[in-house]
Amino acid sequence: MKKLSLIAAATLLASGAAFAATDVPSTFNVSVTITPVCIVKSGSGASAINFGTYVPVTQGDITITSSSVTYQCSHGLTPTVAFDSTVGTASTGGSGAATAEGVLSGLLYHLSIPAVATGLTTGASASAGAGGTNGVNSVADQYVFPITAFMAGGQSGATTAVGGAVTHARSVILTY
Fold it and tell me: From the CA atom positions of the chain, what is the Rg in Å?
């Protein structure tokens, strides 16, 4: 009889009828707090603007369009730009185009950045991969702001600065 009971029990265990598989979940939260940010893209800060040697009275207009600054921002931000207002300079910014002026060696110069970034690259949103693998990381939005510099010709300049280069350290300020 014992032999028969052992054989019956072994048969039930082997068939799975005695113990049905049961899931026992343990739930948990996955969370993150994000601080939206914009940064100057590595290697993409504004380059120096050099008006070169200016010959008073006879010099023609000088326009420089070779400088720009690229920012990388979190998704959903709407950044605006302005120039700084250091001593001897003035600027406007906000929702319109950013403009600034300054005087170097008695020569008035103008800076401008358009209200809307050129070369905007919309980043990609993150997505989870099928089966929990091969997901895609999110990519930042990129905003390229070109800087135009202009110095009018025919200015007389200041004789106090003859023979020496004068420089203003200027900044583009991004607000988001």
Answer: 33
